[in-house]
Amino acid sequence: MTDPGRTPAPAAPSAAASGAAARREAEEAAATTAPDTTAAAAERDADGPARDSRAEAAARAPRAAGPGETVVVRPRKVMIAAWVGAVAVLVLFTVVAVLLRGSETGVYFRLADQVALVVLGLLIAGGVLLLARPRVRADAEGIEVRNILTTQRLSWQVVRRVAFPDGASWARLDLPDDEYLPVLAIQAVDGYRAVEGIARLRALHSAARTS
User: What is the 3-state secondary structure of 23-82?
Assistant: First the structure.
């Protein structure tokens, strides 16, 4: 029996109405977040090449020499060219010595002449290999510069600057009284290897001068 003074309770929403409301809320939320997600993805895609460029630049940055490390630098392209040239000269003279046993002019090459020709090829090949001799060896105490014919060891306190002037073919060490020492081991034709070698030598020089 119903009490006349009591207000009837509202009917509970049906399951279908609740499901429809939930779907509308989900669609509104997706519509709200979709542009943000798309914009974030576009921003990440746009930033991708710049991020890759920064990572590549960091990987290619010259590595500074650490304390106690010994830096050794040699020319690369000149060394390859010197070895190839020396081998070519030696092979050429050897072939000539073997094939020119006699000639149409009546000149006869004896065994001693053939041996002398091979020895001459060896001497020329050795001269060509002198181009591969330059080397730099540096540590915390100083730097040793070996050029084609001479080798010189200097303290860092004597070296004013490790320089690579514009347009120069190789580096040099600036010394007091406007003197300098060529460093044939670091050559412009080696490109990035030369840049890395200069950076490591300058790091050692700076550390020795400030200590």
Answer: HHHHHHHHHHHHHHHHHHHHHHHHHHHHHHHHHHHHHHCCCCCCCCCCEEECCCHHHHHH
CA distances from 93 to 62, 84, 114, 159 (A): 43, 14, 9, 45
Do 153 and 36 touch, CB atoms closer than 8 A? no
Measured CA to CA, the distance from residue 179 to residue 128 in angstroms comes to 29
Q: Are 68 and 201 in contact (CB under 8 A)?
A: no
User: What distance, in Å, lies between the first and last C-alpha atoms of the chain?
Assistant: 103
d(CA 117, CA 63): 48
92 is written with which tokens?
A: 């050429």
Q: Which two tokens stand for residue 190?
A: 């080696």
Torsions phi, psi for 103 (to 5 deg):
-140, 165
Mean pLDDT (10-residue bins), the chain, 211 residues? 47 50 59 48 49 46 59 93 95 88 65 88 94 93 93 93 91 92 93 92 89 70
pTM over cut 0.85: no
Q: What amino acid is encoded at 148 in this protein?
A: I
Residue 208's closest CA among 85, 29, 98, 67?
Answer: 67
Q: pLDDT at position 15, please?
A: 47
Q: Amino acid identity, residue 139?
A: D
